[in-house]
Every structure is written in structure tokens, then in C-alpha cells.
Amino acid sequence: xxxxxxxxxxxxxMQDCVQACMTCHSVCEETMSSCLQMGGQAQxxxxxxxxxxxxxxxxxxxxxxxxxxLSAEMCAMCAxxxxxxxxxxxxxxxxxxMMRCAEACRRCAETCxxxxxxxx
Length: 120
Prior knowledge:
120 residues
């Protein structure tokens, strides 16, 4: 990567995706804490999906910000992790935190799908 490429600001779409990833990461972290407080109620499948999503969204944002050549592929994987997490959270529709997490995941998946199709 040339120094010029490193100084080029991120596109609006990429900035939006990074922001959606970071928001989703934060909400997933809060959801993990909420699941731990629930104890036995929170199924391991949900926890795994939330943990995977939290890791993927953070890594995806980092890779986009450093303009990794793997960003588009990472965005595709991140969208998949977000979809899985949203679906897992929807299994507890009466839990406000789970619904908040599902919504953040859907938004992030949407922006990541757009970025995975874009030329970065």
C-alpha cells in the first residue's frame, strides 16, 4: 500500500460500515453481560452466536480501517455472523436486550453485505 492510499479517507459507505460494526460489537458485549446475569436461561447457542458476532464485528472494523486487502471477504463473513446472531437473539423475543442486539446485528449485516460487494 502506498503512503497516499493510507492517507485517503475512508469512503462514506466504509465509514458507515465501520460504525455499524462498532455499534454491533458494543451491543453484543452488553448482551453477553446480560446473558451471564440470566444464568441458565441464556442458552449456550445464543451465547456462542453473540460471542462470535462481537469478535467478528470488531475484527471487521479494524480490517477496514487499516484497509486490509481481505476486507471484502471479512465483511462477507461478518454479515454471516451478524445474521446468525440476530436469528439467535430472536429466539428470546420478550427480552429487550436481545431485540436490541438483533436490530444492531441486522443493520451491521446489511452494511457489511454492501461492503463485501464493493471494490475496496
